[in-house]
Amino acid sequence: MLEEQFGIRFQDESLLETAFTHTSYANEHRLLKISHNERLEFLGDAVLQLLISEYLYHAYPQKPEGDLSKQRSMIVREESLAGFARACQFDRFIKLGKGEEKSGGRYRNTILGDLFEAFLGALLLDKGVEAVKAFLYQVVIPKVESGDYEKVTDYKTKLQEILQVNGDVDIHYQVIKEFGPAHAKEFEVAVLVNQEQVGQGQGRSKKMAEQEAARNAVEKGLAHVFKGN
Hints:
mainly alpha, Ribonuclease iii, N-terminal Endonuclease Domain, Chain A, 2 domains, tRNA processing
């Protein structure tokens, strides 16, 4: 897939394997001592910030530093990176634990955004910074220039519109789990419609988790069941 779409062939395929392995999968196969993608994500985040900064610096010579910083943050935010991962069809190949798969992890922005950064980290180690730059100019920069990365769907509003087309229903978001250290806490949220759960989401803030839960409900196609209730 990578070779056909992007002309990329990894010399060290274990790096690619690691980039597409989520912690949940590695934890379920501890005896096999499988590596997960968190360290590669750290590396990919750094090279992404650098190359996007370089691009913006040259592309917008009249923009002040503050405006460049805001634009960069829009490009490298979780929702944008997840969108880039989906556009590359990376979501089809990530390895998830059974529980994470069951809870909709394959569609979660946090996981897909981290996957995209992990892939960049793997590509950096295997082929160097110029290969990462070429990939970004193939996948990310065209969307930046067209403004596609700014188009983030408000799934909570979308879910509400679907459900309330024939009358009011009770839509409620409930935090069901908090985990991670205080400086990097994540939230898991369920969306309930007339007290029945229709979606679940995870994010680095309650608002992001609610959006993920709403998106999960919309994309699973469960919302239509409650139309007119």
